[in-house]
Design goal:
Layout (H helix, E strand, L loop, with lengths): L7 H11 L9 H13 L3 E5 L2 H11 L7 E4 L6 H7 L4 E4 L11 H9 L16 E5 L10 H11 L2 E5 L7 E2 L2 E2 L6 E5 L12 E5 L2 H11 L23 H12 L1 H19 L5 E2 L7 E3 L5 E5 L5 H10 L5 E2 L8 H7 L7 H9 E4 L7 H17 L1
Parallel strand pairs: 2-3, 2-4, 4-5, 5-8
Antiparallel strand pairs: 1-9, 6-7, 6-11, 8-9, 10-12, 12-14, 13-14
Helix pairs in contact: 1-8, 2-8, 3-4, 3-7, 5-6, 9-13
The structure holds pyridoxal-5'-phosphate.
Length: about 375
């Protein structure tokens, strides 16, 4: 499905660390963090060992706790909702824009005003407060953050922007991840840059940044010794090999994004001519798309899963994208969600297919994938 794009300098950066005794909490972690402050202009960057850990620390720093309500999207990778469940908060889902797959800002506004209309059937404590909005920049495209922020301001809510899929994207010229109170990026090997496993939080909030630095380091506050722990914390630290790889990859961010743009352009030129599929829709406010995955959407009369099997048989790896969060078994059990609750999310969940995508794909490989799709569509 995807491959990391590593240069000799990236590999050397990891080897350089291994040749020292400092494999954790050394100089590469702050260097990696500085690269994010430089890119985004945000005051604090706090690196962690996954995007999920980053989301969890933001939930803790925002003071979101048991029973609290947070408006979010059911069309995402599960971690965006799971981070709320870790603190026994309640994700209150609203449906999405059918063109982009991002949370529908009008529904966010309506839910903030009429939260009772949107509560799940079970798993909600009476009179729970609405605390935050957690939008996701799906597939590398920012959510409509101006609208979301104005709703948040009106209702006194925190905004946690899950930009795990959108490093380097811009919204009306502003960097994804900088648009709410907290932004989170993730670096699994299929992401725009990779650290193997890893993530980073960005925020301008001094109090939250200090708290999150302590929480990622077993709750050690400034001044605590190794065995003193002011807070209940976690080991969410990134290691130095990962940080060095990340710092090296960040030097190449523009190159990495441009190569992905080229692959997306090759796909667009070939796939836009094929009847029966839609290619990704880019909003006018998306001033730079940060291509994370390439998800095509089949017409409703095409059997997506049959198509996926036949493409796999041709040697083209594909994956349905996303399976809706509200229909995951543990969500159904806890909140009583049912099929039909979020029709747009479910419709995209049934029709979307991620096809092979990375910055190191060649035009020949793109041709191979597209002719496989073309042949299978005409057979269907
Ligand atoms: C939208 C979104 N949120 C959160 C995450 C979690 O990141 P990680 O896998 O690094 O924990 C991902 C990762 O794929 C993601 O796509």
């Amino acid at each position: 499905m995807s491959s990391p794009d590593l240069s000799d300098a990236d590999r050397q950066a990891v080897i350089d660390v291994i040749n020292t005794p400092n494999l954790s909490m050394g100089k590469y972690t702050p260097a990696f963090e500085k690269a994010f402050c430089d890119l985004t202009g945000v005051k604090h960057a706090i690196s962690v060992n996954s995007g999920t850990a980053g989301l969890h620390l933001c939930v803790r720093a925002a003071g979101i706790g048991p029973g609290d309500l947070v408006i979010t999207t059911p069309f995402s990778f599960v971690a965006s909702s799971n981070a709320l469940l870790f603190e026994n908060a309640v994700p209150v889902f609203v449906d999405i824009d059918p063109r982009t797959g991002n949370i529908d800002p009008e529904l966010v506004a309506d839910a903030a005003t009429n939260i009772n209309k949107y509560l799940p059937l079970t798993g909600v404590k009476p009179a729970s407060p609405l605390k935050a909005i957690l939008p996701v920049d799906v597939f590398g495209q920012p959510a409509d953050m101006d609208v979301i922020n104005s709703v948040a301001q009106e209702h006194g809510l925190t905004v946690i922007e899950d930009s795990c899929e959108a490093l380097g994207a811009t919204y009306k010229g502003r960097q994804a991840g900088t648009l709410g109170d907290y932004g989170i990026f993730a670096f699994y090997p299929n992401k725009q840059i990779t650290t193997g496993e890893g993530g980073i939080i960005i925020t301008n909030d001094d109090r939250a940044a200090n708290l999150m630095r302590a929480l990622r380091n077993q709750g050690r506050a400034p001044g605590d010794t190794w065995l003193q722990h002011t807070h209940l914390g976690y080991n969410y630290r990134i290691d130095e090999m990962s940080a060095a790889l990340g710092a090296s990859q960040m030097k190449r961010l523009d190159e990495l994004l441009s190569k992905r743009e080229q692959v997306a352009a090759w796909y667009e030129a070939r796939l836009s001519e094929i009847a029966g599929i839609d290619i990704p829709f880019i909003e006018s406010f998306t001033t730079r798309m940060s291509w994370f995955v390439y998800v095509i959407r089949f017409d409703r009369k095409v059997n997506r899963d049959g198509m996926a099997n036949r493409l796999e048989e041709r040697g083209i790896p594909v994956r349905p994208y996303f399976l809706p969060i509200h229909l995951q078994p543990y969500m159904v059990e806890r909140f009583g969600y049912r099929e039909g609750d979020f029709p747009v999310t479910e419709d995209l969940g049934r029709r979307g297919l991620a096809i092979p995508f990375s910055g190191i794909m060649t035009e020949e490989q793109v041709d191979f994938v597209c002719s496989g799709i073309r042949n299978e569509i005409s057979r269907a």
